[in-house]
Every structure is written in structure tokens, then in C-alpha cells.
Amino acid sequence: MMRRGGAIVSDGAGAGGEEFAPPPARPASVQEQQLESFQTEFSFTLPRGYVDRHGKVHREGKMRLATARDELLPTFDDYVKKNPAYLTIILLARVVTQLGTLSGSEIDSTLMESLYAADLAFLQDLYRRVNSEGTTRALVICPSCNEEISVDVAGGRLGES
Predict the structure, then answer these.
(1) Is 96 in contact with 123 (CB distance < 8 Å)?
(2) Which end of the chain has fewer CB within 10 Å, C or N?
(3) Separation of alpha carbons 148 and 36, rounded Å
(4) Residue 152 pairs with which residues in a beta bridge?
């Protein structure tokens, strides 16, 4: 007998001459597989884009999943108390982590207020999808063939959804 890579194997002198190796690695459980593929950040492409003070358009971005804290803290904000519709602005400012070359503290409620209405509506829908449904994909019916197909509503390259 001798040791090979932490396993004890027979040198052929044992009964039957077979090698003894550790059992094969067990397959990952369904729960372990889900944890490995758990997505917490979602890429998106705004329909219009945020135009910064230098005239640069920022369309590509990332949004993270919201936490309970993200949803609770804005309810204590004075702006939200005066105008509950402002909750959306503060909430999106908390969960959008990147927009073009902007990130972190550069993404705030002032930036969210400056978005075009179409982009704000897009981010609201994306927020709902990733936090309620866990995906940016949606089932749609093709108007030509009436087949149900799955599309990524977060967008991508030109010509994509």
C-alpha cells in the first residue's frame, strides 16, 4: 500500500490487485446548484439613455437585487412623506449600481430625476421583474406566427429586446 494524493491505493500486492481510490465527488444538490447560479445583479440597456452635463449619453447599466433595507429606508425620507411617488426615485438610486461610466455615489436621486420618462418607466419595470420574478426574461407572443417566445427585456445590442 502507498499514499497517492491523499488517497491510499494498493500497489497491486493486495487481494485482487485492484486500486482503492476515494469515492467520486457527489453531485451538487439542487439547492447547491441554485446557490451557484443565484443572480444578484442584472445588466440593462436604457431605451433613451441618461445625458450627463457634458452631453455624454449613458445607456448600459447594472441593477442589483433590492434588500428589505432598500425598500424600508426611503419611507422615512421627507420627500417621500410629502410625495409618495418620489419613493421610486430614491429606490432606483439605491439599486442601480452602474450607468455607463458612472457608478457608486455618482448615481443618486438627482440623476434619477434627470432620466427621460421612458427610461424611468423601463427601470421601474426592470426593478419589478428582477425583485418579484427574479429574471429579466418575459414570455411574449410573436405577432407573425403566434408562437410564445422568451425575450430578455433588459435589452442588449441593437435589434435585440
Answers:
(1) yes
(2) N
(3) 29
(4) 137
pTM value is: 0.64
Q: Residue 92 burial by CB count (10 A; 0-12/13-18/19+): exposed, middle or buried? A: buried
Ordered by start, the domain boundaries in the chain are 2-34, 40-135
Q: How far apart are CA 124 and CA 127, in angstroms?
A: 5
pLDDT of residue 142: 81
pLDDT tens digits, residue range 108-123?
Answer: 999 999 999 999 999 9
> Contact, 48 vs 116, CB < 8 A?
yes
Cell of 3: 499514499
Give the three cell numbers for residue 137: 426574461
Query: C-alpha grid cell for residue 37?
Result: 447560479
